[in-house]
Amino acid sequence: MSSASVASYIDHTLLKPTAKAADIDRLCEEAMQYGFAAVCVPPCYVSRARQYLQGSRVKVATVVGFPLGYATIETKLAEAKQAMGEGADELDMVMNLSALFSGDEAYLRREIETILPVVHDGSKILKLIIESGILSEDQIRFCCNLYGNYPVDFLKTSTGFAEKGASLEAVKLMRSLLPENIQIKASGGIRHYEQVRQYLEAGATRIGCSAGVAIMQEAIQQV
Ligand SMILES: O=C[C@H](O)COP(=O)(O)O
């Protein structure tokens, strides 16, 4: 795999609460330099990133209901609409984990059935974060079986803010259960090119990471 092709799988991510405007500018600059798929920025920086990336192929991604997932459906909807209005191409939304742990499938259906059509009406991409690192294998199976019935664009493993992020086992399990049209984004704790290579081999087609530049430096040396 060429280093340009490695870059095309990466969402160059900066979601730290202390990220500064100048850090977002640098993130955008690096994304253009390396040819990353997208930048993933806090909602308050969507319009800044959109402007910075004007005319480039790098997409603008942001987060919804992040990082804990328990915002109400109405709040998530408002966040999604605002982000799309300000120029986000892709929305990474945390599912309601509390509803999952409560066994409230009806709530989870209501949530996805409310948000997904609005995102798709705006011709945008929804990546649904299941926080696989804190789920049991049965809960991961449940999520894949549930969301496999909807035209969700991606299931994403992790926020990067829970005690555990992505694992190869989780990605392999998700790939084995999801229909082909649903892609997988692996994220959380991915720091090295070798990990990226393994996650892509396991079936992920997008990698979310804050270590994109370091990963590219390794990739350039190795490929
Ligand atoms: O969505 C991506 C994560 O927030 C990135 O997590 P990371 O800092 O562990 O790479």
From TrEMBL:
<dbReference type="GO" id="GO:0004139">
    <property type="term" value="F:deoxyribose-phosphate aldolase activity"/>
</dbReference>
<comment type="function">
    <text>Catalyzes a reversible aldol reaction between acetaldehyde and D-glyceraldehyde 3-phosphate to generate 2-deoxy-D-ribose 5-phosphate.</text>
</comment>
<dbReference type="InterPro" id="IPR011343">
    <property type="entry name" value="DeoC"/>
</dbReference>
<comment type="pathway">
    <text>Carbohydrate degradation; 2-deoxy-D-ribose 1-phosphate degradation; D-glyceraldehyde 3-phosphate and acetaldehyde from 2-deoxy-alpha-D-ribose 1-phosphate: step 2/2.</text>
</comment>
<dbReference type="GO" id="GO:0005737">
    <property type="term" value="C:cytoplasm"/>
</dbReference>
<keyword id="KW-0963">Cytoplasm</keyword>
<feature type="active site" description="Proton donor/acceptor">
    <location>
        <position position="185"/>
    </location>
</feature>
<dbReference type="GO" id="GO:0006018">
    <property type="term" value="P:2-deoxyribose 1-phosphate catabolic process"/>
</dbReference>
<feature type="active site" description="Schiff-base intermediate with acetaldehyde">
    <location>
        <position position="156"/>
    </location>
</feature>
<comment type="similarity">
    <text>Belongs to the DeoC/FbaB aldolase family. DeoC type 1 subfamily.</text>
</comment>
<feature type="active site" description="Proton donor/acceptor">
    <location>
        <position position="92"/>
    </location>
</feature>
<dbReference type="InterPro" id="IPR002915">
    <property type="entry name" value="DeoC/FbaB/LacD_aldolase"/>
</dbReference>
<protein>
    <recommendedName>
        <fullName>Deoxyribose-phosphate aldolase</fullName>
        <ecNumber>4.1.2.4</ecNumber>
    </recommendedName>
</protein>
<dbReference type="Pfam" id="PF01791">
    <property type="entry name" value="DeoC"/>
</dbReference>
<dbReference type="GO" id="GO:0009264">
    <property type="term" value="P:deoxyribonucleotide catabolic process"/>
</dbReference>
<dbReference type="GO" id="GO:0016052">
    <property type="term" value="P:carbohydrate catabolic process"/>
</dbReference>
<dbReference type="InterPro" id="IPR013785">
    <property type="entry name" value="Aldolase_TIM"/>
</dbReference>
<dbReference type="InterPro" id="IPR028581">
    <property type="entry name" value="DeoC_typeI"/>
</dbReference>
<keyword id="KW-0456">Lyase</keyword>
<keyword id="KW-0704">Schiff base</keyword>
